[in-house]
Amino acid sequence: MNDSLLLTQHLHNTVLTKIGDHRDILVAYSGGIDSSVLLHALVCIQQQHLADLKIRAIYIHHGISQHADQWATHCQQQCAQWQVPCIIEHVILALDAGNIEQQAREARYQAISKHLHANSVLCTAQHLDDQCETFLLALKRGSGPMGLSAMPEVILTHRHYHIRPLLTVSRQQIEHYASAYHLCWVEDESNQDDYYDRNFLRLNVLPIISQRWPHFNQMVARSAELCNEQQQLLDELLQPTFMALIDHQKSLLLEPLYMMSAAKRNAVLRMWFKEHNAIMPSRKQLAVIWQTVIMAKDDSNPQFILHDQQIRRYQNRLYLLPQYQDLLPVVLNWHLEPPLPLPDGLGLLTVTKTNSNCRLPLHDEVVSIRFYAKGNYHIVGRQGSRQIKKLWQEFGIAPWMRSRIPLVFYNEQLITAVNVFVTEQGQGHDLGFSLC
After folding, report:
1. Could you give the CA distance from residue 207 to residue 157 in angstroms, rounded to a whole number?
2. Which end of the chain is more exposed for a tag (fewer CB within 10 A), N or C?
3. Domain-ending residue, one of 283, 298, 322
4. Residue % of the chain over a pLDDT of 90
5. Which distant-in-sequence residues (6+ apart) come within 8 Å of 43 by Cβ?
6. Number of domains in the chain
7. Do 424 and 279 fall into the same domain?
8. 109 and 137 both lie in a single domain
9. CA gyration radius for the chain?
10. Is position 233 within any domain?
11. What is the pLDDT of residues 267-283, one digit of tens each?
């Protein structure tokens, strides 16, 4: 048996084992050599072993390279030759808004997720050398066991499995396979730009290391596996403690953390970020979060911005939230119908006859929706008036939600904070307000 046949059998068996019982495969197909080999292997497996295997390919058009249209055409033509349905998805990146690699990665997976059916799995073509590069990049960032675990072969994200069938296959084996089958692929010119850290390792560092230690990538993969095992053990041991600290909103009870060692406390916090599928903060960021948010004075309103999210504390619990739009200056005039779309994804405000606890506006009263009020208000069911800040506190409304609750005004009079309270001046039995 010649070397090409042995390699083919090895690679096909590897892919066949990794996809297991899954039969609906969506391949992230860039047209490059790695994803071309993966797609070709799956087509061969379909023809020779699994006639019920359903394969689709998706090409993400980032619009960064001037050759992106040509690559899309190549992918369509190659898929037509292999009788694989091909999806072309365009994404738009903000080229002047920072980390393009991260933007492209997030946009790519967001676009792909739209095409994952109930039983679909995503297959991507990262291989052994990619794993080595990922490990070294994590090492450069000073990552712990979680980061050094690098890429898992199988991961469940948002109800769908993401499988990397070639993660134990080397780049050299992929190149030999592509040569043996005379495959055609595209070359991304950005892969030769060593400005990017991953390319710098691939082009300038790893070739020298491999000359000295030919099996270096395999040893790194073994270290990544060991780190993953250590992280799994740590998660398993901490799981009962962690589950006792989070609620249905995934907020974290803080008081027990004060009694923990720094190492255990940081491990719990990292589990909490992982539970949110958030980008993991660095060790330095974690220390700042502890000091400036968790340990802040009780009467403060601490906040820490982590990428596109905010970390807040309220009533001895920690919250991870999106960065919300500033709604304080927003004023929306409304005629009570049709339903009013609210900004920043807050939903539709509608008039309802159920739970009718407000009066109708008088003929000379203009209805508006606002998100800010000041002063004292006498609300239904309470004696005397209170400052709006005190009312929010009494109703347990977190500081960041106080500017996200729609306030119904008739002229300059506050009538109701929807689903929270009604003022004495707004009391009635004519209508209610609801969010949907």
Report:
1. 34
2. N
3. 322
4. 80
5. 55, 82, 83, 84
6. 3
7. no
8. yes
9. 28
10. no
11. 999 999 999 988 889 88
The rounded distance, in Å, linking the Cα atoms of 426 and 377 is 11
CA distance 348 to 434: 8
The Cα–Cα gap between 432 and 354 comes to: 7
Contact in structure between 132 and 217 (CB atoms under 8 Å): yes
Neighbouring C-alpha atoms within 13 Å toward the C-beta of 26? 21
The annotation places the binding site at 30-35
Which residue ranges are tagged as binding site for ATP?
30-35
pLDDT tens column, 219-264: 999 999 999 999 999 999 999 999 999 999 999 999 999 999 999 9
Q: 95 falls in which pLDDT band (50, 70, 90)? A: low
- Distance, CA of 127 to CA of 389 (rounded, Å): 56
| Contact between residue 357 and residue 428 where contact means Cβ atoms under 8 Å apart | yes
Q: For residues 219 and 61, is the Cβ–Cβ distance under 8 A?
A: no
DSSP 399-412: GGGTTTS-EEEETT
Residue 235 placed within a domain: no
Between CA 231 and CA 281 the distance in angstroms is 16
Residues 37 and 87 in one domain: yes
Query: Do 150 and 37 belong to one domain?
Result: yes
- Residue 255's domain comprises 244-322
For the chain, give the percent of residues with pLDDT over 70. Answer: 98
- The SS3 of residue 266 is helix
* Residue (of 196, 224, 40) closest to 105 by Cα position: 196
Please tell me whether residues 425 and 385 are part of one structural domain.
Answer: yes
Query: Rounded to an integer, what distance in angstroms lies between the CA atom of residue 266 and that of residue 264?
Result: 5
Residue with tokens 């000091």: 291
